[in-house]
Amino acid sequence: MKNTKEPEVGIAKMTFASVYPKDELHQIIEWLTGYTESELEKQIEVKADFERFYQSATLNPNARLITGMICGYRVEESEHPLTQKVRYLDKLVDELAKGRKIEKILRVE
After folding, report:
1. Do 56 and 20 touch, CB atoms closer than 8 A?
2. CA–CA dist 34, 77 (Å, integer)
3. Short-list 44, 46, 55, CA closest to 22
4. Alpha carbon separation from 60 to 4, 9, 10, 106 (Å, rounded)
5. Cβ contacts of residue 1 below 8 Å, gap of 6+?
6. Rounded Cα gap, residues 42 and 48, in angstroms
7. What's residue 72's pLDDT?
8. pLDDT tens sequence for the chain (109 residues)
9. pLDDT digits (tens, 9 = 90+) for 27-46
10. In degrees rounded to 5, what are phi and psi of residue 94?
11. What CA–CA distance (Å, rounded) separates 103 from 28?
12. Cross-strand partners of 70
């Protein structure tokens, strides 16, 4: 591996949008929270912290189907409701980043 001060051409020419699938990310957040696109944009605009963000949200009833490990914690074992909601979102974003299909990310019974 050579050490240079110039970025690799592949990385340098990659678009930011290709690693930030905004439409899919917003779809996931809207599914989890019940926010519409405009409501989500408002939360972003006012720089809502997670407490405020989730106070106004209507959690999807299928959120309980989000299980597994994230950051060394089992999502389904979170004892504090706010922490669990944040971990739900973190888990969904992680699945999106790993290339999981959106149909699988949005849990349907």
Report:
1. no
2. 23
3. 44
4. 48, 42, 39, 10
5. none
6. 9
7. 92
8. 555 566 566 666 666 566 567 889 999 999 999 999 999 999 999 999 999 999 999 999 999 999 999 989 999 999 999 999 999 999 999 999 888 999 999 998 6
9. 999 999 999 999 999 999 99
10. -60, -45
11. 10
12. 73
pLDDT at 108 (0 to 100): 80
What distance in Å separates the CA atoms of residue 32 and residue 5, rounded to the nearest whole number? 42
Which amino acid would we find at residue 38?
A: S
Length of the chain: 109
Distances, alpha carbon 5 to alpha carbons 1, 2, 8, 12, 108, in Å: 13, 10, 9, 12, 48
Looking up tokens 């690693």 gives 19
